[in-house]
Write a structure and sequence with these properties.
Blueprint (H helix, E strand, L loop, with lengths): L1 H9 L5 H8 L4 H12 L26
Helix pairs in contact: 1-2, 1-3
Length: about 60
């Protein structure tokens, strides 16, 4: 999604507001950050968890541990 949004913007397919609405991006600053990353040839990183908590369940420990 990040790459598609950036490429659409750079291709002139809409303003930053238009692209944010199309892809459900919450803020223009996030899109601007992605554009800067793309222009500086940085790799886009994904969280991989899709919003799920990373630690789902812990275990009880004793005071000695």
């Amino acid at each position: 999604m990040k790459l598609s949004a950036v490429k659409d913007y750079l291709a002139g397919m809409g303003s930053q507001d238009d692209i944010c609405m199309k892809y459900g991006i919450r803020s223009k600053s996030k899109l601007q950050k992605w554009i800067n990353q793309y222009n500086s040839n940085e790799e886009f990183k994904t969280s991989g968890t899709r919003g799920a908590p990373i630690m789902t369940k812990g275990r009880k420990t004793t005071y000695e541990e």
